[in-house]
Amino acid sequence: EAAPRLVLIPTWQCELRCRYCVIPKQTGRVMSLETARDGIRFLLSSSRNDLILQFFGGEALLEWELVRECIRYGHEQAVKLGKDLSFILSSNGMSIDAGRLEWLSNYPVKLELSLDGDSDTQNRFRRALKKGEDSYAEGIGPKASMIQSAGLPYDVIMVVHPENAFK
Predict the structure, then answer these.
(1) In 45-160, which residue ranges form alpha helices assigned H by DSSP?
(2) With 103 labelled, which of 61, 68, 87, 133 sits at a CA distance of 20 to 30 A?
(3) CA-to-CA distance for 133 and 47, rounded, in angstroms?
């Protein structure tokens, strides 16, 4: 039986404009710390002991301080309650750096990294918001060895666009 999971969306903003994404990129849509803490307390009220808090978006790492505070707070509260709370951080990788990976490695965090293929495929279907920016070169591809050496568990997920599915 799967552990109960709560998904927080710290922001709907993202550095990418994926052709298939349905999340509206509304300016100013940022979750408040109070709302996030309410969600964490709700999750921890479960009668189950093994729980998962996931960060999704948009790109959750664009609200790094909020994500950090939620992980710190969630971990602290779970310990007080004798519960096992693990975290999943979904990311396109553009905002990942060594410092963030080092901080995350202090907690039970699993990365869920999105990469849709090689550079041409990535840039065709997952275009960068900033004109001329390369979503592959700025994403997880070139950061793979840094991510692996951080020691965090991770999955790589991909979307196969219908235009690419039957070539």
Answers:
(1) 64-81, 98-104, 119-125, 144-149
(2) 133
(3) 46
